[in-house]
User: Fold this.
Amino acid sequence: MRAVVQRVKEANVKVDGITIGEIKKGLVILLGIKDNESIEEKKYIVDKISNLRIFEDEDEKMNLSIKDIGGEVLLVPNFTIYGDCRKGRRPSFAGAARPEEAEVIYEELINLIKLEGINVETGKFRAEMEVNIVNDGPVTVVLDSEKNI
Assistant:
């Protein structure tokens, strides 16, 4: 599982011009899901999202997590994160999970993050989305469960 995590002042996602998810201060997470995600990989990503210290404290040091600041998450499914661009000029998405499998995992992650006490807004699986982000910093990190389990 890969997650592109962006610290934001605010963000929203629209489908067909209608806002379906909106947050204030928090994290936008563009989530890519690969074939055969393990429970350990799911737990790893949820733990990192919930406890990653990328918000500034009173001394302007990145020392606070999303839980510490009472922030929100906008979780957006994005299979293109598993695009492999090493060969040729067109990305290969062979490593991405099939949509039916990925959607189930996406829904599981939403629930797991909510269990951490974090408000989660979402994009729409298998939809053409417009994601509007006001970056804060900007601070962007990439989490990859495959490289850490």
